[in-house]
Amino acid sequence: MQTASPGDIDSLRKREAIEAIVDQVKAGDVQAYRTIMIQFDRQMYTYCYYILKNHTETEDAVQEIFIRAYEHLHQYTRQVSFSAWLYKMAYHHLMNIKKKQSRWFKLIERCKEQVQPMPGQSFSQHEPVIHELLTHLTSEERHILLLKGVEKYTFDEISEIMELKPATVRKKYERLRRKLLERNGKKGEVVHGTFTATNGMH
């Protein structure tokens, strides 16, 4: 029998703690919802800002997402984690806003961590390449890459968030990854290992 790792145990405890707070809110404890907002505020802000790239619009979007989540909390079930359910709410809200450009700072930082520059080159020399590559992704591809590569959701969780089949998400992820690698090759640049850390199949 496989023993759960400390990380898995900690993750499970956090999830159970959030579920308990959700139950409190459903039971009528409105003040308990503030705890949920505090818990997820930074994550929601970061996610929204990557898509909207505007602080004012991001603040408005986060506020609206929390309001909608509260209004629809009675629809939440434990078939998925509350975190995944909230991200699904955010995903649909951002899609409705129809903002197609974002800066993806955190994703670029992850790319830089994995990049092994060619002799005589520095990480800063690769940044324009990474920026240029990401601009050729569709809005859907950016969401998948962000949820998988940065937020570390599994394909099953992403499928719940984006309302796609897990197999479809997996195929789209592999397709966008090949798209980035092929475009990178056409530019004559060598960015070794980019996105390899996000290539795990779950």
Automatic annotation (TrEMBL):
Q: Which InterPro entries match?
A: RNA_pol_sigma-70-like (IPR039425), RNA_pol_sigma-70_dom (IPR014284), RNA_pol_sigma70_r2 (IPR007627), RNA_pol_sigma70_r4_t2 (IPR013249), RNA_pol_sigma_r2 (IPR013325), RNA_pol_sigma_r3/r4-like (IPR013324), WH-like_DNA-bd_sf (IPR036388)
- Gene3D superfamilies recorded for this chain? 1.10.1740.10, Winged helix-like DNA-binding domain superfamily/Winged helix DNA-binding domain
Claim: Nuclease is one of the keywords in the record:
no
One Pfam family cited in the UniProt record for this chain: Sigma70_r4_2
Q: Name the domain of life this protein comes from.
A: Bacteria
Name the Gene Ontology molecular function terms of this record: DNA binding; sigma factor activity
- A Gene Ontology biological process term: DNA-templated transcription initiation
Keyword check for Lipid metabolism: no
In this protein, which residues make up the domain named RNA polymerase sigma factor 70 region 4 type?
130-180
Q: Which keywords annotate this record?
A: Sigma factor, Transcription, Transcription regulation
Domain (RNA polymerase sigma-70 region): residue spans on this chain: 42-103
Q: Which family does it belong to?
A: Belongs to the sigma-70 factor family. ECF subfamily.
Q: Which NCBIfam families match?
A: sigma70-ECF (TIGR02937)
**What name does this protein carry?**
Sigma-70 family RNA polymerase sigma factor
Question: What taxonomic lineage is listed for the species of origin?
Answer: Bacteria, Bacillati, Bacillota, Bacilli, Bacillales
